[in-house]
Amino acid sequence: MLNRILLIEKEIIYVFTVFLILFNLVSLYFIVDLLSYDEIVGYLTNGEIKSGNPRNLAFLFFGTTLSNLLFISVTLMARFFSKNAIKTFELK
Q: Do residues 51 and 42 make contact, with C-beta atoms less than 8 angstroms apart?
């Protein structure tokens, strides 16, 4: 019974890890698109114009997303290539 629960938990971890990788890749697409903007202009309710440069924030998001992808990928590979996983595949 406990072995079955652990197998289900491993499958859930793999599925959510792949989902998180896909989510980060989509996020990376939008961040790269944001890097191409020179200025974002907003119109306030009193008629004033507010503008801002999104490059600094986009670079912060870019670095965070890349480090997140690296961490997730290394964790997934470590789980996949662990000694127990290799023994399981050799038995099949």
A: yes
Number of domains in the chain: 1
Burial class (CB in 10 A: 0-12, 13-18, 19+), 10: middle
Per-residue pLDDT for 40 more than 90? no
- Number of other residues whose CB lies within 10 A of the CB of residue 76: 16
Contact 59, 35 (CB under 8 A): yes
Q: Which residues pair with 51 in a beta bridge?
A: 41
Q: Could you list the residue range(s) of the whole structural domain that residue 40 is in?
A: 2-87
Tell whether 55 is covered by a domain: yes
pLDDT tens, residue by residue, 44-56? 888 888 888 888 8
Q: What is the DSSP letter of 51?
A: E
Rg (CA), the chain: 21
